[in-house]
Design goal:
about 60 residues, alpha+beta, three-stranded antiparallel sheet, about 25% strand
Length: about 60
Amino acid sequence: MNALLENIDRLHTTAMGAERIQRNLSIETEDVVQWCRMQITDPGAVFRREGKNWYVKNGGCVFTV
């Protein structure tokens, strides 16, 4: 298991970050962080590490963590 999945419970954002994620991805969920966690932990997600960032591709989205 990679370090990102081992620490998925630490994933967070600010209120402004949550609004930006909702707007950019056109999602209607109230809990943006939980939605992102579900996308990242999906078995079909593809992980790539570049420097300090993780890039997770799933469902037509690329998550930068």
